[in-house]
Amino acid sequence: MKRTILTTALLICCFLASFAAIADFSGMWTGTLKVETGEVYPLLYNFKIEGDKLTGTAKTPKGDLPIDDGKITGNDFKFTITLGDMEIAHTGKFYADSIGVDIAVGDTKAHTTLLRKK
Signal peptide span per the entry (predicted)? Predict the structure, then answer.
């Protein structure tokens, strides 16, 4: 009986800790993306979390674009941004002080790290 209560309490604590980590993911994150041609593009995302749904915006030269199809599973996430007729897929992992992001447009892929905007 004591073992069952202890196990249940431990599982609840782990569950609550994972939600606390996800809550820290919300907010403004910034970084740069260097492409194969050597050009460097600034990145700015404003993430919002609602349960396991990731929403928000990405700042582009054409203005703020909405984050589509955003989903969070633990510290992993995925979403897309549509720029004109291009779908830009994002996948990544949230760490306590940074976010690792893989960005794909067609066959072209790149990786970057985002930091919380201060």
Answer: 1-23
- Angular region, 5: left φ>0, alpha ψ -120 to 50, beta rest: alpha
Whether the Cβ atoms of residue 111 and residue 31 lie closer than 8 Å to each other: no
Tell me the pLDDT band of 27, cut-offs 50, 70 and 90.
Answer: very high
Task: State in words which class domain 2-116 has.
Answer: mainly beta
Residues 6+ apart with CB under 8 A from 45: 28, 29, 30, 56, 57, 58, 59, 67, 114
Q: What global pTM score does this model have?
A: 0.77
